[in-house]
Write a structure and sequence with these properties.
binds adenosine-5'-triphosphate; alpha+beta; 23% strand; binds magnesium ion; globular; 13 helices; five-stranded mixed β-sheet; six-stranded mixed β-sheet
Amino acid sequence: MKTPLAYGIDFGTSNSSISVAYEDEAVLVPLGADGDDVMPSIIYLDSTRQQLAGHAAVRQFLVAGSGTGVRLMSAVKSFLADDSWHGTRAPWGSELRPADIVAVLFRELKRQADAYCGADVKRAVLGHPVFFVGAEGKHWERLNDLAKERLKEAAKLAGFNEVSLVEESTAALASEDYVPGIIMALDFGGGTFDVSIMSTDNAEQRRVLASRGVAVGGERFNELLFDGFVAESLGLTREYANKFGKPLAVPESLRKFRSLDGALRMVSEQATHDALQFVIHLKGGQAIKVVDEIIYGGHTYAFHKEVEAAKIALSTSARSTVDFHRRHVDVKASVDRKSFELLIAPNLDRVESAVDAALTEAGISAGDVNLVVRTGGSSQVPAFVSRMSSKFGAPKVEQRDALATVALGLGLEAIGVWG
Ligand SMILES: Nc1ncnc2c1ncn2[C@@H]1O[C@H](COP(=O)(O)OP(=O)(O)OP(=O)(O)O)[C@@H](O)[C@H]1O
Ligand SMILES: [Mg+2]
């Protein structure tokens, strides 16, 4: 049996994965009962102090449903660079700091990887985006460092005593065979889009020429699809009237239902119930009752997965539908790729600007790049693919495994550190 050197951990906004680094190769660890490449970056906490992550977290939430004693968290990575975010109060009353929350996920990855390779591995290379969501403006560097410190601390809490950090998009290039010249990775995930440009003077020597990123990702696309096609059928866009006929907009606290993480926060906040009841009793307010049924029927996670599935279907079809039916819940909305592309176009402009900025930083133009590899779930969005194909020439742009490339690359980077 080979001795593992370390793990490569890709903690993503939407999905997380882990690879084992051996002296001569990196291997992806199959996760969950089905041996998936990734597990959802979801954390479950409840008043019995139960702390679960990944598949087990989702499964338990579907059983336990809603309630003040239950908390399901998603997209935690997007808050790591927020210096006003100090964590959350657990359902059992303790304060959990950001690192404590991420540690729940890291522990689960480590537990499954340790079981897979039959060892207690204490070294890890952690991936990170070029710029964390929120690390912008005058203090971007301090905020980015804060997020990295929180990651490192979480890894320590999970039992790793040697930790090294590598940019995710750089890791995405680690498994590329030697190509002379300049290669580039475009990693388009759930929270961020990241670019790395590398020069490969010879097979051994690779140099990072530039890396850039922007806080645009698939979670944002889910929100835009929700706003554009779904919000109306849930009564979230219309104006209501009080008994004097005065028009009232939907309270801001209910608008956060548009994202999975916002909706999951609503599940455990008492204010949600009050705000919903307030609207339900306004003139026309029955329209919003379906949101109440989704939240208190325990369907919040499943509903948002259905919205996401409609988006993912648009990558292969011109049309799809959000079709969600439960007791007292009947939501049906048609979505189409053309309209969706109009909604996401400003975000794709920002993605393209990040690519241009990376090219400028590297002192090259698009024509100088020999190979462009795409990875990350959102790299399959057709409008993105066609923009990159026009920029670099379609034959130079190649798709790599959307979900496993970064984790495997981080494992290969670990061989460089400890091999
Ligand atoms: N075929 C597809 N078309 C469009 N989007 C997709 C497709 N498959 C997955 N996605 C989206 O990709 C995102 C997840 O991608 P990925 O797992 O690469 O992100 P992540 O690594 O968790 O996030 P990040 O790296 O930004 O922190 C989700 O928003 C998901 O909806
Ligand atoms: Mg990723």
